[in-house]
Write a structure and sequence with these properties.
The chain is mainly β and 261 residues long. It has one domain. It contains two helices and 16 strands. Strand 15 and strand 16 form a beta hairpin. This is Protein FAM78B.
């Protein structure tokens, strides 16, 4: 009798039917760039993390839509700006810091759970009669501003003496059914970005800051196994909205400078 009308015989997309090839993940081999153009803030621009992969998806059944792309989450963050012996400001992810979650989404804040919706994802709507070959890519870097003066004071006097930043991420290549939300993890990448900048606030603007420590970043690790995606990596809030800027004085109680969004 066959199974022309049988749901059980409907072709399914499975991990073993998906081909992943030419996976690459790297961080540009250049130092972090320090910018001292403003009398208000120091800015620095880190090298880019870049990831790309080719994927061959099997034919997509009728009434199904699959998205293939990159999902990223922050798993650890230390971001301290020291102002001599006065204290330090600190960008923090409270839930991550306190161990209440293992990761926080690093989506663009719109395209949840995806990192973005341009080169980062490709959507396939069934029915398709033959395999689809596609490429997805993404990049990420830091380009923040740090005040020369103590952020809670009314003074514009430069007091910044050191910037330390250390952040870790997991980036997943994923195929997801848009209706059922079934997810197939195709590749897992771990990477880390570290910044260490010494500042002499007594020097003239343009010659205060210098990069210390290692000039180049450690290269990402493309894992030979797939890590599960924690729930907090898939929805709101993303890391930008969840972070809070604290002022932690050497003496006295810490203050919230910028609350989470």
């Amino acid at each position: 009798m066959g199974c022309i009308q049988s749901i059980a015989c409907k072709p399914r997309i499975r991990r073993e039917n998906i081909v992943v090839y030419e996976v690459s993940a790297s961080i540009d081999q250049c130092p972090t760039i320090i910018e001292e153009n403003s009398p208000i803030v120091l800015r620095y621009k880190t090298p880019y993390f870049r990831a790309s992969a080719g994927v061959v998806m099997p034919p997509v059944p009728r009434n199904e839509t699959w998205v293939v792309g990159w999902i990223q989450a922050c798993t650890q963050m230390e971001f301290y700006n020291t102002y001599g012996d006065i204290g330090m400001s600190s960008w923090e992810l409270p839930e991550l810091r306190e161990g209440r979650v293992k990761a926080i989404s690093d989506s663009d804040g719109v395209s949840y759970p995806w990192y973005g919706n341009t080169t980062e994802t490709v959507t396939l709507t069934g029915p398709t009669s033959k395999p689809s070959r596609l490429t997805v890519s993404m990049n990420d870097n830091f380009y923040p501003s740090v005040t020369w003066a103590v952020p809670i004071s009314n003074s514009n006097t430069p007091m910044l003496t050191h910037i330390t930043r250390d952040q870790s991420f997991i980036t997943w290549l994923v195929a997801m059914n848009s209706v059922t939300k079934e997810r197939i993890v195709l590749q897992t990448v771990r990477w880390r970005m570290r910044v260490d900048i010494a500042v002499d606030p007594d020097m003239p603007l343009g010659s205060r800051a210098s990069l210390v420590g290692r000039p180049y970043q450690e290269q990402p690790h493309i894992l030979n196994y797939q890590e599960p995606i924690p729930p907090n990596a898939l929805g709101r809030p993303n890391a930008n909205d969840a972070q809070v800027l604290m002022w932690r004085p050497r003496r006295g109680a810490p203050l919230v400078v910028i609350p989470p969004k």
